[in-house]
Amino acid sequence: MTCVQFAQDGFDITLMDLSPNALKKALTTFENFGQSCKFTIGDLFNLPFPDEEFDVVFNQGVMEHFKIAGINPDIGIQEMLRVVKKDGTLVILVPAFFSPLFFIHRFFKSFNLIEKYWPYEDQEFLHKHELYEMMKSGGCKNIVVRRVWKSFFFSVIGYCKK
Prior knowledge:
Largest sheet: 4 strands, mixed
Number of helices: 7
CATH class of the domain at 43-95 and 126-161: Alpha Beta
Strand order of the largest sheet: 3-4-6-5
CATH architecture of the domain at 43-95 and 126-161: 3-Layer(aba) Sandwich
Strand content: 15-25%
CATH topology of the domain at 43-95 and 126-161: Rossmann fold
Radius of gyration: 16 Å
Shape: globular
CATH superfamily of the domain at 43-95 and 126-161: Vaccinia Virus protein VP39
Mean pLDDT: 89
Distance between the termini: 26 Å
């Protein structure tokens, strides 16, 4: 929905996902709102785009899965920075520690209900300082990290200029 809003605000959108099913769902959502965008299958660790392709690279619903899977996110962040234009912006949203969703996840996890009821792969919920350190380790400079109050405390946003 965030990218649909960006499209409604006049941005040219390119969506990328590793999953064809995720892109099909996104296509349906865009069509339902009368919006269009480009769709690309791709891997965050080897982005299929040239250097400095985008003014803004926006990542949501991805970075919280790496730590629990034992994957270092540095290369993914470096790849996102690579495709951001000079003076462009990298934006990363992650689910927030101590958010309402965090407590629901903990409840499911404590009763071994994650696989049955949680709609995503298992994930982490990040503190602001964890997102900051992740972005710094990946090569970001002048990082700003904030809790997104409008999301009912569900999200933390980090961004940096290239």
